[in-house]
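User: Round two. Same drill as before: sequence, then structure, for each protein.

Assistant: Same drill it is. First protein:
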Amino acid sequence: MTEGVGVVELKKMKLNLPDGGLKLAYGGVLKEIEVAYEECGAPLNDSNAIYICHALTGDAHVAGIRPGEEKPSGWWEEMVGPGRAFDTNKYHIICSNVLGGCTGTTGPMSINPDTGKPYGSSFPQYNFDDAVDVFRMFLKQLGVKKLAALVGGSYGGLQVVNWMTRFPDDMEKSCLIATSASLNTQAIALSVMSRNSITDDPNWKGGDYYLEGDGKGPKAGLAAARQLAHITYLSRELLQQKFGRRLQDNFVNAPAEERAERDRLFKTYFQIESYLDYQAMKFLRRFDANSYLHITRSMDLSDPCDRYGTLDAALARVNSKVLVVSYENDILFPWWQSKEIAAALLRAGKSVSYCHLE
């Protein structure tokens, strides 16, 4: 691997909002919005900005070393850097946390200027139109006139679809990775189950848990939501290859009392169980339950056909060159939905490339 991008600091920008604040699609208003973002690469000019929309539980730290750390910790290190797919010798890379998130951009954890307390249950419902509008306001304020490329995978890819159909002149190129124009029914069902696990947890308290206990709220519900979602991020074949029916030695060889307690709690000894527990605990340290609820709901509701009638009509608006990438055996975003996007773009006479990866 070539040299990385070095130290990248998280920055924050307070948006210059219209008088009265930003009016959201469902009638709510945000009087203040702060955007947390990171940028790296070549100095920004009029033609070299690439904006990357992060995945569902991602953040602005797409690549680089955080201050005080020794190693790169970005979620897309292999793709962003000198000589890599998104070449920081040529391009200025920008990524910000989405509206409603929990890593710096205004969301349910943020302080409501009207009350001086966290928004919690009072954080207004929003959709992808609002999230993309915030991205665009942020980029304009940053000085970006037009994007060389707009990139997004999965949840981020849905935002790219919204963006390139609503504002087709904002970007020269668009890249959609393992995503769709809207969620299929199975994906919505999994999303609904994840949210139910949070809202059914008594520690959710209707969303107002920040000032109670440790302020972390529905840990059990959020852990269950993460475990369910994480299964969809790995293919059935990969899970089988990685874990099979193998057992954890440290549990199998545990003292009789510990084994009896696990039996009483209906716990087993499979490696996959331990893996899911680990992923859940790691997730709890960095994510907020209310943000998870808002982000997944906005994803579920996103559908360009609601505005334009059909997928063909929506994608006929696109002016950028488009790269569509799909993955074999993707559970949440199956390949056929990526192919639908590519086919609709072809029918509209657009410049599109399609790549399917095993």
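Second protein:
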Amino acid sequence: MNTRKFVTYTPFLSLVFCFLFSVAYAAGTTSANFLKIAVGARASGMGEAAVGVSEDINSIYFNPAGLGTITNKEVSFLYTKWLDDISYQYFLCAFPVKFKTLPLQTVGFASYNFLYGDIQGADYGGEETKKIKAGDIAFCLSDGIEVVKNTHIGLSLKFVSETLNTKKANAFVSDFGVLHNEEMLDGEMGFGLSVRNLGTAMKFVSENYSLPMNIALGTSYKRNIFQLDDPLTVAVDVNLPIDNKIYYSCGVEYWVVNLVALRVGYRSKQDTGSGIRAGAGVKMNIFQIDFGYAGYDKLGDTFRLGMTVRFGKPTKLRITSLPVTTQE
């Protein structure tokens, strides 16, 4: 992106941010709070600082603009052992596609399944009744595309559903993101903005609850050190949730000869626990396995284990009724 274009876009993005900043401080109780739990073992090990780093399939959660930087097909599975008997699983896939007359873009899909386990029921008198089921699910469709050189935008549309025994609440949600990368200081700087969980309120019985909207600004710096293929990434995010105070995330990732990753991070405003995060990763051909850890003092420890598979070339799509010729 040249200086003139950067100057042109900056005031617009600043106005958008100021507007969203004011919205974020509207007080209120939120629902679908499982959407706050970060997706991705890699990002978890880096303190959940990923808005300016988004360069893999987990961009679907942190900043959908990062999808536009993916040039191969990716599939990812993750299992999270959350607090108590709660578990969280997700499946992600991303497919770069090339329309005949449009730039390369990447389409992503995600499904989230949050299970609370059996919950002991009780009547109005406090007497125990049968155990009840509770859980949350979400389905997401995303798209990321480069609009000018080194600048991507992304959009996600989600359907969210919460279930408590026989009661259900549904909502339609959207995320938006911008990501710009620039070569400087012998490395690459990333600048990201994401707005997550904008949408309709969820209604349980007769009460409406807002969604956990969050605005995040992120930056990152990545470069190879020791003159080897061993990238070091440093990232910092600032988050402005609608239902809480500003908090910060920061993290470092170092790939040893691009085969084994070591990660450490920190997240502020942690209600319990120190906020320290840690993780590791390993690459084996087309496979990448990642592990993330976070502790919550007496509440227990949480673990994330994920696997990503990268393969194939961009899928070419034709949007014309004309037959394919030999020149194509």
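The CA atoms of residues 167 and 205 lie 8 Å apart.

User: Perfect.
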